[in-house]
Amino acid sequence: MSPTSKNTKSYIFTSESVTEGHPDKVCDQISDAILDELLKQDKSSHAGIETFATTGLVIVGGEIRTKGYVDVADIARKTIKDIGYDDHSIGFHWEDCGVMVTINEQSADIAQGVDSGKGKFKEQGAGDQGLMFGYATNETREYMPLPIALAHKLAYRLSALRKNKTLPYLRPDGKSAVAVEYEKGKPKRIDTVIIATSHNENISSKKLEHDVISKVIKPVCGKYIDSKTRFFVNATGKFVKCGPPADAGLTGRKIIVDTYGGHGSHGGGAFSGKDPSKVDRSASYMARYIAKNIVAAGLATKCEVQLAYVIGYAKPISVLVDTKGTGKIPESKIVQLVKKNFPMTPAGIINHLKLLRPIYKKTAAYGHFGRNDKDFTWERTDKAAVLKRALRK
């Protein structure tokens, strides 16, 4: 039984996040920056872009079909520069790291399934088979689980204080984790906060710990901290060697950070580097949109939505709504409402959420969900009013 269903018990749930300078997130951002440039030039571009980073080297591979041209190496370097890898002593620098590119054309067998009228079925089909999940809960303003919401805010604040020179000794790589104690299914307090942040050799561990607790942790988590809350800051003692030289990075290796921090389920597909014809990404966004509107409408306090697809076929083969025992009307009724009010074919999702825009680089750090950004169309609650009518009936 998942913790989200233990509505009568006390338990602790932990979620983690990472900064934009984490090696895996560096790769996610490079992959999505390339995708953005493709969509700027040709909205019909299709891409599956994978990035690998290690000491002084970035390798970009995958499949692309486009009418445009992208200078992959230039985009990779600009992304690395924006993140903040501009110190040669780290062993990874935007200006002189090697960039290898091995890009192939998208398989014609896949292409015919995602182009309208070209495959076995006339309508634009899913770019792959698979299952996707969306989740929402009313425990935060963002309709996100509190542990991942706080973990993202901590990671973001680490980067913000590094970039504005409030904590100038910080380096780009870092992690956060928050353990929240729940009582009767609701967050009560923070049991533990963990921060691992890279830094230069000139700062003492005592000074860094004091600064991180006072300027990062307490401003973000203060409401839930009590006298028993534990803090761990750089628990190994130091974090000087960082980024890809310390731990090689790879696109798609932070799928739980990208979603709900372990709450709910995950279908296994990553997001970054994939154009929206790939339902790993677009259907996950739609599933979140559906779940969030269900909770915003008051039909449930928690909701998980599963969508499943066949490659080349447009309609989902299954639609599941699980309210974790919090539903105000039968789940079968909610499924009917979902099918009536939400487009779930690839073309319908892309059009409704306006996914053929160059918006993806900024999704690649600090989570794809729970963000207050007008470009994150899957975070709207514009369907909540329609769903609320079901309660009145």
Low-pLDDT regions? 108-113
| Rg measurement, Å | 22 Å
Our count of helices gives 10
The counted number of beta strands is 11
Multimerization status: single chain
Helix content: 25-40%
Choose one word for the global shape. Answer: flat
- Provide the spatial order of strands within the biggest beta sheet: 1-6-7-8
First-residue to last-residue Cα separation: 32 Å
Mean pLDDT: 92
What share of the residues does DSSP label as strand, in percent? 15-25%
Structural class: alpha+beta
* Topology pattern, helix = H, strand = E: EHEEHEHEHEEHEEHHEEHHH
Largest sheet: 4 strands, mixed
List keywords for this structure.
about 400 residues, alpha+beta, four-stranded mixed beta sheet, about 30% helix
Molecular structure report:
The protein is α+β, with helices and mostly antiparallel strands. It has helices at 23-41, 72-83, 108-114, 146-163, 205-221, 255-258, 279-296, 331-341, 346-353, 384-392; strands at residues 10-18, 46-54, 57-65, 98-105, 130-137, 170-183, 186-199, 230-233, 249-250, 302-309, 318-322. The strands form three sheets. It has a four-stranded mixed sheet with strand order 1-6-7-8. The protein has a four-stranded mixed sheet with strand order 4-3-2-9, covered by helices on one side. Helix 1 crosses helix 2 and helix 4 packs across helix 5 (205-221). The relative contact order is 0.18. Residues 108-113 have low confidence and may be disordered.
